[in-house]
Design a protein that fits this description.
alpha/beta; 5-stranded mixed β-sheet; two-stranded antiparallel sheet; 4 helices; about 30% helix
Length: about 150
């Protein structure tokens, strides 16, 4: 089960929506949660959550608890696709759990990500059974090479 740092809502009320921030390869949830105070100025009723990816990253420096959504040692499309599909199930469950915990409707979320987290935000967001209330998936510095079918 995923967990990680949280921020808000800045308005001090019950959240009206959730913004899930997915970190990049080798990082952790502490990385992107630092954006929340800035974004909360325009989204004061949002709860920002930045889950730690499900797997430890063996390429993280000693003493740093880096995480990965899926291994990237073999960059072939089939391996990346299988890893993204597995991590998607975990991220989907996390989003559903957060929405349920805060008694929010199934579309009251947004996904944002950086690098490998951007891959997960887009891969998961485009495949959820209930899309976000507004077009709300963002990605920074993401790259995927190979046929799109590998991630289908």
């Amino acid at each position: 089960m995923l967990d990680g740092p949280r921020f808000g809502p800045a308005a001090g009320r019950t959240p009206r929506h959730i913004v899930v921030l997915c970190h990049g390869y080798g990082s952790n949830g502490d990385d992107l949660i630092s954006l929340a105070p800035y974004w909360a100025k325009i989204l004061p009723d949002a709860l920002f959550v930045s889950p730690n990816a499900p797997d430890p990253c063996d390429m993280a420096p000693p003493g740093f608890e880096g995480r990965q959504w899926f291994p990237i040692g073999a960059l072939d499309p089939a391996t990346l696709g299988a890893g993204a599909r597995r991590a998607r199930g975990v991220l989907d469950s996390f989003i559903d759990g957060e929405l349920t915990r805060h008694a929010l409707p199934a579309d009251a979320y947004a996904l944002m990500g950086f690098s490998q987290g951007a891959m997960m935000a887009l891969f998961t967001g485009l495949r959820r059974s209930v899309p976000p209330r507004a077009s709300a998936a963002g990605a920074w510095r993401s790259r995927y090479r190979g046929p799109a079918i590998a991630l289908a």
